[in-house]
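Quick one:
INPUT:
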């Protein structure tokens, strides 16, 4: 190997090592961002039941007295601040009623046999679901329509089947 080839070989190894180091730096930075996002989404997920309770309480406050309605306006402002934090982190609620049941987004807490709704359609949403751009933070808890299964006709009740059965026993 000539001196020029040795220098070229070392130069190639050096450039490969630099590229590998840069790729590792980018990979570590990406993993760090994903871990941070995952931690934030999990922490926010723990606040979702409190937000649900806020929304439910404010729904009942609409039919209350004037003083309670004044308090409710203040609580609505607090609720909107919570929702703004969710939005700023890319977390939104999603609508389920009327959509097809999706096990990725829904948790079926009740299944109703009915012909009034299409099969596997969400009839009612008990608890809102939330998702980020990357994953479902909390699945919606829903009631799902299921078409009843057709009742199988027992062939032994038919006269022809009884004749065949008795013929088979004699043989």
């Amino acid at each position: 190997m000539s001196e020029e080839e040795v220098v070229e070989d070392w130069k190639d190894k050096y450039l490969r090592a630099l590229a590998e180091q840069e790729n590792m730096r980018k990979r570590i930075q990406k993993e760090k961002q994903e871990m941070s996002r995952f931690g934030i989404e999990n922490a926010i997920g723990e606040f979702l039941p409190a937000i649900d309770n806020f929304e439910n309480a404010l729904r009942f406050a609409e039919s209350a007295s004037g003083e309670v309605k004044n308090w409710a306006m203040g609580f609505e402002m607090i609720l909107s601040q919570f929702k703004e934090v969710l939005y700023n982190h890319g977390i939104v609620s999603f609508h389920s009623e009327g959509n097809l049941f999706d096990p990725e987004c829904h948790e079926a807490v009740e299944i109703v046999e009915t012909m009034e709704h299409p099969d596997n359609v969400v009839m009612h949403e008990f608890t809102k679901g939330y998702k980020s751009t990357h994953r479902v933070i909390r699945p919606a808890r829903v009631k799902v329509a299921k078409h009843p299964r057709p009742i199988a006709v027992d062939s032994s009740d038919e006269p022809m089947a009884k004749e065949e059965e008795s013929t088979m026993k004699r043989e």
